[in-house]
Description:
The chain has 432 residues and is α/β, with parallel strands linked by helices. The chain has helices at 46-53, 59-62, 92-98, 117-130, 143-155, 170-178, 190-203, 214-220, 222-230, 247-261, 281-289, 314-324, 333-344, 356-367, 388-395, 403-406, 419-431, and strands at residues 6-9, 32-35, 88-90, 103-107, 135-139, 158-164, 182-186, 207-208, 238-242, 270-276, 328-331, 376-380.
Amino acid sequence: MPTDHQLCCIGCGRSAFPTAPDFRCAHCGELLEVVLPKPPAEAGTWPRRWRERRTSLAAEDISGVWRFREMLPAVGEPVSLREGNTPLYQLPGCGRRLGMTQLWAKHQGINPTGSFKDTGMTVALSQARTAGFRWVACASTGNTSASMAAYAARAGLGALVLVPAGQIAWGKLAQALDYGALTCQVQGDFDACMRTLNAVVRRSPVGLVNSVNPYRVEGQKTAVYELLEQLAWQPPDHIIVPGGNLANASAIGKGLREMRERGWITHLPKVSVVQALGASPLAAAWRANRGRELTPVHAETRATAIRIGNPASWRKAVRVLEETGGDCIAVSEAELAAAKAEIGAEGIGCEPASAAALAGLKQWLSQGWIRRDETVVLVLTGHLLKDADYTLDFHRGQMAVDAAAERLRRPPVEIPADAAAVLAQLEKAVQV
């Protein structure tokens, strides 16, 4: 069963009951995190229990999050859409080009609403409903709004979404609308949306479910339990995560830390973060001062899921980089576009932000920081169809790319309804 827990400040360490509506410490203003009690002696048998639940038809066992409920806080009856249980793919084509034999992708885009956000939202919405909220709210670059709207609908709660006007992919906006959310397009960027929402939750009984909500992190950490289970509890050398608001890297680090504390793994893999060059405040801070201070930036990138200039969870992410010996870098738009097409050529589609993980890996390989004989897992955070316009623009030649990416373009060809015309195109393709 889920367990009792405390909320503690990551800055001053104080317990935080009751919590502020923005989940900030009342003493120092830092973020909170869930602290679970010391596990019982039987905890060593839990991994076997989790594996056995995979054949169960019980609702909680079917969920790839609630299957790990012994490591989750008690938050009431789960609000679930059968999230989690996402595939771990090997990437033989990318691996061959890079000279690697152990390159994997954990595809969190294979979730009910098409992104990793669902694994955290199931816990956050369960907690919000138990706490008595009738409405929940988020600021979003797209994926969070889609996920929250779906889970709010499932829970019977109202959903308020704030998105930056004209700055999110239409596929993601369509999801929030279809799931019934009150959707407000704010004249400003994501950070303006977040400031506005913080003011709203202080004045109205609306539950905040952005990633500052520590219950989101609890759900998201189960992805790394699932990953290690898929790898027979043998940690890879590296886990590489795209970085926007940075809660995902924080969640993965927390999950790994808890596994080591309980003896399920003997060492931590290096967890590293890749940001888009136009939205890379953590990468800049990591280079300048090892993340002691972060300067917000005006974010610009077509990878809308990580277009965030003032990430809320940066201190948590820095702690993960330090604990695991990871790194943080930024990649260009051209590198993102090429990496996305290379992943697509494996038959595995992802949204642009996800491709940051592969683009970062290529940089680290060229620098020698990652070796070609190491085992690397890329975390793909969102589904291809989250931003179909990006994919179409790339392949139609409506996006500036470098020569390497140019060779990956596969534009559609208009031809007459004639077999000879089809065969002519096929012959061209065979010769390429």
